[in-house]
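ok so I'm stuck.
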Amino acid sequence: MNKEDQMYLIHLVGGDDDILEKLEYETTDEVIGLLRNPFTQGEYYQSAEGGLYTWEPRTDISYEQIDTENGPLSLTFLRPRVENVRFLNGTYVLPKTAKEVLATNLGEEIPIVASPDLDRYKKEWKRCWNVWFAKSDLGVGLRSMEYEYCTIYDIALLFECRQIIDTDTGLRHPTQVAINKLDEVDLPEELTRRGRMRECFLRK
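replied:
not stuck anymore, here's the structure
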């Protein structure tokens, strides 16, 4: 994030982690579109300077945490929309621009709790999970996510958000994560080995 120009800043790096090019974008949709390029175009991204780049959006992107006047800002809030553009049926709303992101204030920590609907789970329905934010004074945007049935992979993506932004209140909240009824469900093995899903599994 370029704090002075209030722009998203993307570093394109080489195999030795050397920065080869820097790209700046004003809007959130632009930066998500660029990061999703291998999904949408299926070929190399060609920069304005003529460089050719490719990456795996699920594993090759580093979402940094930066210091701002309003406290630390984690860019992990972008990740769900990068990996799934229709994440939670469009209920996952983000600020429209980098300027709006930088204008948010640091709020209180939110516990994010995932719970399976056991009736749907036993019927082997993929969308058998709900998410609940254990905080009372959230905006309607975040609350609308609680009414969506989602997959365990949606839950895993949401859990990777070290901060989540409430666009109605202008607050970004650090997150804690937990899963209910873990003893009554089987999680995909690949999810139990990585990220914050693994942390939940180890606490079981």
